[in-house]
Amino acid sequence: MIGDHNLSIPEQDYRDMDIPSYSLLASISKHGIDVLGGVKGNFFQLKFGSLVDDICFQPSKLVNYYQAKGVKSITGNPKIIIDAILADIDSVPVGEKVKVKELIPTRLKKRSKVVSNNLNDYKDSIVIEARANGVYKNYSDDKVFNTIIGKKENLSYFADKINSRGKVHIKPDMWEMAIEAANTLKTHDFTKIYFDDTPGIELIYQYKFVQKVNGFDVKGMLDCLVIDHDNKTIYPVDLKTGEDSAENFDEVMLLHKYYLQASLYRSAIKAIVAKDPDLKGYGVSNFEFVYLSKMNIFKPLIWVVPQTLHKAGWDGFTDRFGFKHKGLTELLQEHNYAKNNGLCSYVEKDYDNDGRKFLSGLIKNEEE
Fold first, then answer.
1. How far apart are CA 170 and CA 168, in angstroms?
2. What is the pTM of this model?
3. Residue at 120 is within a domain
4. Of 105, 206, 239, 349, which has the maximum CB count within 10 A?
């Protein structure tokens, strides 16, 4: 069945696969093939939508990936000592070993220690850093240790700093809004079908695939795949959020080139279905975008991509505002040409024309 084609690999392993994806092709469409040669932007910058996605479809990711609780800072000598210990531990995860300073009666050396988020486990380190920084000079070792661990705020600061390393820090108000938005999607009459346990309906979240489509190797990760076994119909669905109102998603789609995603993913799912004998008789419905605006997180709308736009996503088109958009075929050709020629800086047409490009399309028509 179609679930057998869902790649059972970690998300980062999927992202590391050197195969073109919708997001990469959209970047090429916006910025050109320079994005392949090291001119990078932060394409995976945290957005509100990423958080809502994970709350809805990957809740197990939240604890280890996000930090919604702020770290309440401390001051004075305790902060100097604890920050020095944290620097010594660096980014080693809790439970793994790290070389830390240790007092051996009359000398100092380093030994392996299992990283803990409990400050009580760092007596030697506390004493060493106090001596190194010239604080608590007249205190005995035991008094230095007890002074630091005797205050709850010091223990909390250390634990929060350890536990938040490597996580994406978000503001509490964003977290609360994302929780509210996810609850809306799960309970709203229009969208709860993507979350309800309904007889005859199979739901697969974060569906990862690698597939050859129209002669090109591509990859994708779909938020939700709805399989209606009773009617033998598969619905590819992706969740989007944004600043614009729900009614203006058509303009948002053009701006972010979501039509590329719809065309690529639907074609890939159709190819998967076509080669699996267990899916004989199943059809793939038009791609659906579930859109929720931050202007009103209680008002989701489902936008269904028409067949004409699915085709235009591959062929390219001129939109109603007169702007031209490259299709998947041209973008994949540009990608493959650049990759096959050592990440060259030009598309093939630029070489053919000796780097000369004609400034056309600036004027609507000659009569104007």
1. 6
2. 0.78
3. yes
4. 239
